[in-house]
Specification:
mainly alpha; 10 helices; 70% helix; 0% strand; flat
């Protein structure tokens, strides 16, 4: 054990929380400064719109600038006022994620093992996974609108970790001294990041869907709903995240069963942790099956994804804290 490295790990985690807070504020400023809906990349560009102006229109006294309002109405991208704040927020999120990664690594080095031996360590690593999945997805998609939700969730997780779940760095109990810890728990941590983003996408879908249904002309005008991507994109992104995460969760459950056989001599015993892991698997399997066979998309699919995330979170917090079982060694 290295107490100095453990202390340094804590300092990096606290520093990351400070930077995440600045990122959250910057995302809020960017969101508040955005006056309209997020621009979709597939919309028609200005050149294509101007090309549709009838021949001779310029001779009639018109100019390219006269087509400006029509171009704007067609959804041509224009630089939003909050763009700079959004860029700053993304940079701060990258910085905070790097600092949190250092904190997680130092925690493991201080104990001479992987840093996933208790709820505190799993929580800070899961927060890192959520942030990394968000940042990696933002390379391909403009997800600045999502940043305020992601940084808020990360801060909440880290806050609970350092106040409620914190335990001193220590050696693993015998049941955890296995390479299956690395295999099983690392897969579960990545799934935590994926399921969290699917939850956020689905929640955003319901917010915008409700705003559009309540509007007489079907146009979302709320402070938040009007700034979210369109429903089709939110639904598609939630599906893509679940489609990627579900096979990994299947692997995590199977790896856990193999580890259980090595540790306790049986693959499955309906321990509370095993039961709720299976419930989570069933819910997300139902999500994918309903979309593939019954065409369940949109609102119904979003609710199933939210239910799946709720079962995942209960499996982590509720089972670990409220239900005694063979997994109690991984408590706070």
């Amino acid at each position: 054990m290295n107490a100095d490295l453990a202390l340094l790990s804590n300092q990096f985690v606290y520093a990351a929380m400070g930077v995440y807070t600045l990122a959250l504020i910057s995302f809020a400023v960017a969101l508040a400064a955005t006056r309209g809906q997020i621009v979709e990349p597939q919309r028609v560009d200005a050149a294509a719109q101007l090309a549709t102006v009838p021949a001779g229109a310029a001779d009639a006294g018109s100019s390219p600038h006269d087509a400006g309002p029509a171009v704007e109405r067609a959804g041509v991208p224009e630089l939003p006022p909050g763009r700079r704040a959004g860029n700053i927020a993304m940079s701060l999120t990258w910085l905070a994620t790097g600092m949190l990664a250092v904190g997680v690594v130092l925690r493991g080095v201080s104990a001479g093992r992987v840093p996933w031996g208790n709820m505190y360590e799993f929580s800070i690593t899961a927060a890192l996974a959520v942030s990394l999945v968000f940042l990696l997805m933002s390379i391909k998609h403009d997800l600045r609108w999502l940043g305020i939700f992601v940084t808020g969730a990360v801060l909440l997780t880290l806050g609970l970790a350092v106040t409620v779940l914190y335990t001193e760095s220590a050696q693993l109990v015998p049941a955890l001294k296995s390479w299956w810890l690395v295999i099983h728990v690392s897969a579960a941590i990545i799934c935590a990041g994926g399921f969290t983003l699917a939850f956020v996408f689905s929640g955003a879908y319901l917010i915008r869907d409700r705003a559009e249904r309540r509007s007489p002309d079907g146009v979302a005008r709320g402070w938040l709903s009007a700034r979210l991507p369109d429903l089709a994109k939110l639904d598609r992104m939630a599906y893509q995240v679940v489609a990627f995460t579900f096979p990994l969760w299947t692997f995590a459950v199977i790896a856990g069963a193999i580890w259980a056989e090595n540790a306790w001599g049986r693959y499955w015993g309906w321990d509370p942790k095993e039961t709720w892991a299976f419930i989570t698997w069933v819910v997300f399997a139902g999500y994918l099956h309903a979309r593939a066979t019954s065409g369940w998309k949109g609102r119904r699919a979003a609710w199933i994804a939210i239910l799946g995330f709720a079962t995942f979170m209960f499996n982590y917090f509720g089972v670990n804290m409220l239900m005694p079982g063979l997994h109690s060694y991984a408590g706070v």
